[in-house]
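anyone seen this seq b4? input:
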Amino acid sequence: MSSEFILSGEEERDSRVKDLVRGAESAGINNPENRIVITGKGGTGKTTITAILSYLIAEKHKVLDVDADPQMNLPYALGLDRKVAAKIVPLNVQADYIEEKTGARPGSGWGEFLSLNPDVSDVVERFGIGINDKISILVMGTLHKSGIGCLCPENDLLESVVRHISIRNDERILMDTEAGVEHFGRAIARGFGHAIVVSEVSFNSIQVASSAVTLAWDLGIKNIHLVFNRVAGNKDDIDSLIDEIDPSIPFTVDQIPFDENLRTVDPSVKPLLTSNSKMVPAVRKLLNRIYESS
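predicted toks r here
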């Protein structure tokens, strides 16, 4: 079932998509199809896929990568010097910047005035790191889970940063996240036109992927791409795992084969781009599908 398109309720979907486009345009988001959020169970290879996508997209466009995964491995996967990458301080612990923008310092306790809509238009210029002349990265850290009731300055800042990124129309945006997108919220997620949900060929992995697909759809992301990574000829297993996904949600399915070259190039993906890689052509096929569905 490689690269198969799953459709259900097309009229309902078309109406929903039109509503989403109107909502995005009213928020100043002109091209949500240029923004992709990548999620999935930890260890499925989503950061590697994000890095390869970045280099492929950069053949034609400028790319801003946003690392919202607490593991913060994306700079390494992009090939940033390890000593430089190790010294990156994520935005969620940039106490001076958080206080400057929100009026409150992380950990300062209750009772301080907190700006709920800080101006973060300078965030990429101040904290973005250039990988090359086409790719830059912003390392955010991660939002606290929404269910814990945290009204704190670092959350406020990161939410504002994601909203700001959603209206930057001069770049393609890729956001690598932890497992799940529930901590973004509808107002933030509507800036993203695509969700790539990465899964291994296993029941535990597809359970996380299934939840991510549902959350992405419920949050209003109109193009959902389920990607099975490290596939080694187990087509029947994939067919049965797809049945775990809510059949009322439209999504595409792609497969990326296991690539033994990953072990020798880790952590950077750059050597794969000029090698006889099995993975890169499959990721390019995924990218072409994204372009076609935009």
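The first helix runs from residue 10 to 26. Residues 186 and 219 are 5 Å apart (CA to CA). kinda curious what u guys think
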